Amino acid sequence: QSVLTQPSSASGTPGQRVTISCSGSSSNIGSKTVNWYHQSPGTAPKLLIYSDNQRPSGVPDRISGSKSGTSASLAISGLQSEDEGDYYCAARDDGVIYVFGTGTKVTVL
Amino acid sequence: EVHLVESGGGFVRPGGSLRLSCAASEFTFSRYWMTWVRQAPGEGLEWVAYINKEGSEKYYAGSVKGRFTISRDNAKNSLYLQMNSLRDEDTALYYCARIGYSGYNFEYWGQGTLVTVSS
Known about the structure:
The structure holds two protein chains of two kinds. By secondary structure, chain A is an all-beta fold. Chain A has strands at residues 9-12, 18-23, 34-39, 46-49, 63-68, 71-76, 85-93, 97-100, 104-108. Chain A is globular and about 40 Å long. In chain A, 37% of the residues are buried. The mean pLDDT of chain A is 95. Chain B contains no helices and eleven strands. In chain B, 0% of the residues lie in helices and 51% in strands. The model of chain B has no long low-confidence stretch (mean pLDDT 96). By secondary structure, chain B is mainly β. Chain B has strands at residues 3-7, 10-12, 18-25, 34-39, 45-51, 58-60, 68-73, 78-83, 92-99, 106-109, 113-117.
């Protein structure tokens, strides 16, 4: 059972902005950096955001991450069909254990 | 481009064993921590284990601790996961991934190898 809670689904029309929340606690998000992963259907996950708000090379700047206290958020602006899939937040917990969020399925209407 | 290829998955009875391998290429394998992550059919991601660059530090999820062993051979650019006492709930697609230098992010992933545990 994951200790990072995300909404099960989110949706928007092309061009809209979608935000995904990730709720944790002081032992994970509250004291460790947050990463976000995107998994398109039938493919391996891809790193989207690391260290709360940093984008790896190749990730467009319409994707952004933020964190406040024990919660984190991922925002996708200018929603595109390629943004469909599952999104997972993740962080270390209690030192060295790593936990993923429950996952959010994003649908482009 | 970083390349990670998992192998060794298959069908096994409960209580059985399996050894997964992950072949790494196009980067200096010995400079990076590595990890295994699994995903049960239709479910989310679950971290399994990670190992430091030298292979001297290993950390495990509670669900596999004492049954799984992560290891690496830097001379062969390979990562391994020895899985013993397998259970039905270990059925999953197992991914290996490279850990980046900043904040335990899993920056490159393989395509996964499927492990099915069933009687």
